[in-house]
Amino acid sequence: MLWCNIPGFYDSDKGGPRWGSCHIFMDGKNVFVVDGYCTVGADRLINRLLSWDKLKLHLAITHPHYDHYNGIERIIDDSRFTVICLYVPNPNTYNKNFSSECRQNIEALERIINKAKLKGIRVYYLYDGDSISIGDIKFTTYRNQPTTAENTDSYLNDGSLCFWFGELKYLTTGDAGFECVRQHGLKPAFIMGGHHGNTLDGGDLKPSKMAKFMYDSGCKYYWDNDYSTNYTDFLMTGREDAVNSGMKFINIHGDINFISYDNKVVIYKGAEHWSYRCSYDKPLTLKTADIAILKAVLKGKLGNGDARISELIRLGYAPYSVQANINDFYKLIKG
Length: 335
Hints:
By secondary structure, the protein is an alpha/beta fold. It contains 10 helices and 16 strands. A hairpin with a 3-residue loop joins strand 2 and strand 3 (about 30-35). The model is unreliable at about 200 (pLDDT under 50).
């Protein structure tokens, strides 16, 4: 079984700074974190990881922008964590001469790499087409670094590492576009959109074309990583286009969890859940509900909604088994 947790936004975060992007993958022995948010998002990520301190921690940075690398750098700096390895783009593949901002961002990536090496963390540079296995967590990396760009953001965003979890039919893009889906014939069912929806070096997969192409390629579920509904042109049009094409938009107001087992992925968002077929064939290992956990849920000790789902999974319980028993248990104790 694999579990992916995407720490969500909450009403108290409204009006605050952008968080960026973050995924936490766990197979029971290993934790793989792709990007680390910034500010309050990084705080929430760190607090969540501290409860898994006995697991092997692996980190990745898709591209050198603060809202993606800040949390990762903070984890490396934090003596409470034992980090096994760090996966990053090779900083030598960037051109530092585009602007001072570009140079500063690349130097920030070099700073993090040097910190990791000084602490004995293995650093791996990932290139287009690399395949990696971390326990049961398996992915292929796609990357197409532009040689030219109109501005620093598009140059660094479009060169993000894209992680394709083929067994799960899931693609993370950092802040890159979706050109790799077309280039490599990928068939994602569930996908994260970046802040900007950029395409790679002159590609033509703009929001409306992207939405139709992705849906026609089998993508049925979509989320993006910005709280606001009007931060960029892509988020104003791309989200709407995705929904209009037939995709289910799953908002980031609260955690998104998905569990992979027995050739399917189940996505949990609060009281709702959806599923799709995949090739991941490991059995479900979560525990079914017991009296102690039912009492804890009824007393609100595990939080509510998305927070409760995440906490149940962290404690080793299958959320649907708890839900299936909670109503009957409630009637029993009231009767």
